[in-house]
Amino acid sequence: MNITAQMVKELRDKTGAGMMDAKKALVETDGDMEKAMEVLRQKGMASADKKMGRIAAEGLIASCVKDACGAMVEVNCETDFVAKNEEFKELTAGLAEFVAESNPADVDALLASTCPKCGKDISEVIKEKIASIGEKITFRRFVRYEGNTASYIHNGKIGVLIQTDKKDEELMNDICLHIASSAPEFISRAEIPQSVIDHETEIEMGKEDLQKKPENIRAKIVEGRVNKLMASRVLLEQPFIKNPDVTVGQLIEGKLTVEKFTRYMLGEGLEKRQDNFAEEVMSQVKG
Question: Does 279 reside within a domain?
Answer without folding.
Answer: no
